[in-house]
Amino acid sequence: MIKLPAYNKLAVEGTYFDEKTCRACLEKKLSHFLSLGCMPKPNGFLTKKALLKPEPYYPLDAAYCKNCGHVQTIQIVDSKTMFENYVYVTAGAKPMLDHMEETAKELVTRFKLNNKSLVIDLGSNDGSFLQYFKKNKVKVLGIDPAKNLAEEAERNGIETIADLFTQSLAQKVVEKKGKADLITAFNVIAHIPTWFDLFAGISDLLTTKGVMVIEFPYVLEMLKKNEFDTIYHEHFSYIGINAMNVALKKHGLEIFDVQFFTIHGGSARVLISHTNAYPIEKAVKTTSAKEKRAKLTEAATYKNFQVATKKVKKDLLTLLKKLKKENKTVIGYGACAKGNVLLNYCGITSELLPAIVDSTPLKHGLYTPGTHIPIYSEAELSTLKPDYVLILAWNFAETILKKCEPLKKDGVKFIIPIPKVHFVK
Ligand code: JHZ
Ligand code: ZN
Hints:
- The chain is globular and about 65 Å long.
- By secondary structure, it is an alpha/beta fold.
- It contains 13 helices and 20 strands.
- The longest helix is centred in the last third of the chain and has 23 residues, at 303-325.
- A 7-stranded mixed sheet has the order 9-8-7-10-11-14-13, sandwiched between helices. The chain has a 6-stranded mixed sheet with strand order 17-16-15-18-19-20. Strands 1, 3, 4, 5 and 12 form a 5-stranded mixed sheet that branches.
- 31% of the residues lie in helices and 24% in strands.
- The chain has helices at 79-83, 94-110, 128-135, 147-155, 167-177, 195-205, 219-224, 241-249, 282-293, 303-325, 337-346, 397-403, 405-409, and strands spanning 11-13, 16-18, 30-39, 55-65, 71-73, 75-77, 118-122, 139-143, 160-161, 180-186, 206-217, 237-238, 253-261, 267-274, 330-333, 355-358, 375-377, 388-391, 413-416, 422-423.
- Ligand JHZ is lined by residues 88, 92-95, 187, 217, 234, 264, 334-338, 358-360, 378, 393, 395-396, 399-400, 403.
């Protein structure tokens, strides 16, 4: 029996299993380094009616591989139930849209894509990314297991298969549409538990000179900046290029270029092709060497991260309790998956944080999973009369702070919980 949280009387144990094998090298050399307690689904926002029903919780632990240094969650929650009805909408985050538009432009130019090229986006969400390719007259196809979002994409004119990507789906796509010149996967590869099947499918789906572009929050940034709240059941992997190359090489694929971006707390973008299709850029060698120096296969590497994670919990609870005593109102900003991890890990409910505002219309009127905090629109922030704002979507702090300039002038203070609990100056 798992230890269910005291703050949620309706918590029940959900169905999951423990992964014993490394997703990248397939060896059984996992070593546990972090426990975040029990969590509901990170994007499992609830309607008012659903608040009265039992809520499944799953233990959340992370491990690294002593063989290849890959970092992953241990408990696996069924992907279908987790992604079928998804409320994270790409179009909800403007900085992400800008980033995608720029990326699409760059890829069309670099790989000379035209009206004969086919671009396939995995985890295509509401079709936002593919819109930018469509504008450039490139043929596009989205694949995403979230039925609600696939329908939304179709309404926006983006053909979308509402299914999980597998090798067998890849083969069906090849039969129907031919092979892809470009496959993109932004912030989705960590959401796929079966890398062997995934990359087998990619190898089948890519043309001889085809390129796959994958972007993901970078493991060294996560460790350096103590981004422990990005660890959740949707993210099976925390990725570095060496571990990913180990997985790719099993299918005759390799990374030939890597770039870095500040988005999502520090992301890496890798470009992948069939082996020897493109020269390996210098950035791949320097990044690989940097990862080796970081010693991701050794327990000592994870020590600071463990200590800093516990400190955030202690400091945040102390601060919120103190502010409550002083009769101050604290409102959350950004009802994001990582925010739900932080709130559940710390056991913060509406008693300490009575409301959260968010830009995503789909989330308005819903409640956060586990902690049951109501979500309002951004426009309602000033009517909630905060003395303090806790920025849960800390990766978008700059954009959020700009929007809150008038509140700041009125004396409202802003708290950012990561890498350590601090006030915005
Ligand atoms: P955001 C997402 O995680 C989802 P999340 C996913 N699991 C993933 O892999 C990572 O990204 C990388 C709101 N917001 O994107 C919108 C405002 O309210 O950091 C979002 O709900 N005002 C696929 O869910 C949330 O904040 C704003 O001005 O942790 C941000 O969520 C902006 C910019 C955002 O991700
Ligand atoms: Zn491994």
